[in-house]
Amino acid sequence: MTQRCIKAWVHGRVQGVGFRYSTQMQAQQLGLTGYARNLDDGSVEVLACGASEQLDQLLAWLKAGGPRSAHVDRVLTEPHHSADIPARFTTG
Prior knowledge:
The structure is a single chain. 25% of the residues lie in helices and 41% in strands. With 92 residues, the protein is α+β, with helices and mostly antiparallel strands. It is globular and about 35 Å long.
């Protein structure tokens, strides 16, 4: 199975509402590695690595709004190429 990585920037009301931790739980359930971290502009950056189907499921969850306490306005994504694939999913 080929592993790939994506980076996503999630904009909206996504800080201070448990978004990173919910993303971590969702990613771990899907068997993905990477991180979710707050950015200074109020968005959350998500790096996720794993099988394409699971990455698509995580992206669909992010675009659907994530946890109920959040409000997602938009999700921007791009492929991410890295020699260092994270061993687990963390919040940073």
